[in-house]
Amino acid sequence: MAYEFKLPDLPYAYDALEPHMSAETLEYHHDKHHAAYVANANKLLPGSGLEDADELTIIRESFGKNPGLFNNAAQVFNHTFFFDGMKPGGGGSKLPGKLEAAINDAFGGFDKFREEFINAGVTQFGSGWAWLVAKDGKLEIMKTPNAENPFVHDAQPIICCDVWEHAYYIDYRNLRPKFLEVFVDHLANWEFAEANLEKAL
Ligand code: MN3
């Protein structure tokens, strides 16, 4: 059966992340941007030779070969992962145990992780993503341009922050560093990250 990309509902109400992320941002980001990636990916899949593949295979196999399909398919995954990676009352330095241990092991402590994650997002020139990933059994920070994600770099995503301007311009204008700080301090769903860590390692 041919694969069909889907637009999942947000896992919380549109206003649930206020004051850190507005309902207006989530309405545009989910209902316009994410929805457009889903529609375009479904338009570009027929004739690609990947119709019957699963989502990750479509992403990996279209990378570098079919940019239109790759960009939209990867952005569908990236946005679902980003929205699932936030929650009301999220963020902060109180982490679930396994995630805390892995972060301490990889970065020497939460503060260093926080600094490196924020720095990855700040220094991603133009549009893209900041990621915490698992690679070769260890946590790492990664930044990717445009639609690229860890799967095409042989890594597993743990949590991510969208640093395309549409993710923060309504709420933070040009202040990308402030948006990244708010993501780590008030929005990140660390339980989601720990569940991904358990799958990855
Ligand atoms: Mn986005």
What does this structure look like?
By secondary structure, the chain is mainly alpha-helical. It has 2 domains: 23-84, Helix Hairpins (Orthogonal Bundle), CATH 1.10.287; 97-200, 3-Layer(bab) Sandwich (minor pseudopilin epsh fold), CATH 3.55.40. 50% of the residues lie in helices and 11% in strands. It contains 8 helices and 3 strands; from the N terminus they run H-H-H-H-H-E-E-E-H-H-H. It has a 3-stranded antiparallel β-sheet with strand order 2-1-3, sandwiched between helices. A hairpin with a 2-residue loop joins strand 1 and strand 2 (138-145). Helix 1 (23-44) runs antiparallel to helix 3 (67-84), helix 2 (55-62) packs across helix 3 (67-84) and helix 5 runs antiparallel to helix 7. The longest helix is centred in the N-terminal third of the chain and has 22 residues, at 23-44. The chain is globular and about 50 Å long. The protein starts with 22 loop residues before the first helix and ends with a helix. The relative contact order is 0.15. Bound molecules: manganese (III) ion.
